Amino acid sequence: MRIHLFILVVFLVVSAAHPTRADEAQSRRPFGGKEHAIPGKIEAEHYDEGKPGEAYHDVDEKNHGANYRGVTQVDIEKRDDASGGHGVGWTKAGEWVTYSVVVKESGDYDVKFVLSAPSKGGVIHLDFNGKDATGPIAVPNTGSFQTLGSVVKKKVPLKAGEYVMKMVMDANGKSGYVADIDSIEFLPAAPASAQ
Description:
By secondary structure, this protein is mainly β. The protein is built from two helices and 13 strands; from the N terminus they run ααβββββββββββββ.
């Protein structure tokens, strides 16, 4: 009896120390408990809540910016010209952040990134449920990290449904960083006859 009790106690301790895949999946959740709607604007700093490796990946553990979201490795910068007062900065190739989104209606969308980079910026892309949705997007030269500009990826086809959208930093620009990113906005693409 004692051996069986000991085995049960060891099993419970090991189970508590090593969460199941279901437990791990639950640690990533929408920012503020609500999924972002597409069409609509997503503030870059409103990435999913959760652990590193699940909600985001950063190349170092330090947040080099503002304490906007408590303990996080993502570098959040405070900036007066950003639509939400903050953005994601100091981005490096290999980093990513996730966003829980709901696409309200199937169709083609123009995706507008508001961002900044001095000289030639880096390259980014968006995944939806692990599949590349946009292809590589080159970050334009906006003059400096302090000057916001934009780049638009036209006619990105999306199907209605719930997704985990991942913004991936693919390559650094000449500055050694990818870009400072303020927001991502999805707008229904105009029909070909209207263009």
